[in-house]
Amino acid sequence: MTFSIFQGRSFLKEIDFTKDELNYLIDFAAHLKELKQNNIPHRYLEGKNIALLFEKSSTRTRAAFTVASTDLGANPEFLGANDIQFGKKESVEDSAKVFGRMFDGIEFRGFSQEVVEDLAKYSGVPVWNGLTDDWHPTQMLADFLTMKENIGHIEGINLVYYGDGRNNVANSLFVTGAILGVNVTICSPESLFPAQDVQELADKYAKESGSVLKLEADPMIAAKGADVLYTDVWVSMGEEDKFKERIELLLPYQINMDIIKATENDNVIFMHCLPAFHDTKTVIGQEMADKYGVKEMEVSDEVFNSEYGRQFDQAENRMHTIKAVMAATLGNLFIPKV
Length: 338
Ligand code: CP
Ligand code: NVA
Fold this sequence. Notes:
Largest sheet: 5 strands, parallel
Strand order of the largest sheet: 7-6-5-8-9
Mean pLDDT: 97
Number of helices: 13
Structural class: alpha/beta
Helix content: 40-55%
Bound molecules: phosphoric acid mono(formamide)ester, norvaline
């Protein structure tokens, strides 16, 4: 018997869940966070086995799925793309069928959205998208939980995203914001405005929720009235040959103190999904400084380390929110409706 409206479902992209379901998962994550903080066990997935499939690198997503699985009583198994046959010697379909015979749930991070969709189609178990080129749905739950913790509510928040408006995180913020009733501005050069299909999808949800969606090329105009300033790396995984052109294009879109001041909001918060280039303490950060003379990219070190920053709360919330999705979709909890 199924007690949970989430049971057996996958989370491949944000539109897989309704506004009420997304809000439920965010609130459930807040509850699980409290249980963890009070050392109250919540082993809803006792004895289950979880595959963690990674084609791309990860710190937060891998750590979050590992700790969340363990806290829930499940066993996480990391399967790096280079260690297994996946896609090289064995098709996605065949691999999915094998995983489905052994694992109770699968996390996938990689390039193609089609692959994560096929994993769900052929494995027969819940699949959770840990990032593809198109979407980053588990990131969204953590981000909107963090906003709710800081602002007290989600609907009506003014969120401004700066940088590459066509990447997975920008796509996800635009569409999730539209579903949840958040006013989202994507601030980037016109050449990096979201793709037409993403705009149309977001517009469709905004009509239902009342969100005001904007595309704005002027960083100062975009900032005014923002509650949240959000940015991501200018070059996503898989497009590392684009650093030069993106630095030239996006330097005016760096979130620095001028942008913070332009919000005219003393309570504004800064968010970043991480990892971030805010100094030269990374190999790539130093390389970019040597080659192009930029010591900080999408966010200034000053803002990153300021009282406005919430990026490490976001990082922690990855774990609580991923735990909520796993428990809701695999734990057969008593959630008859939301
Ligand atoms: N934000 C995020 O997905 O981080 P990782 O790439 O470290 O998983
Ligand atoms: N847009 C980034 C997000 C990393 C969490 C990337 O895809 O590399």
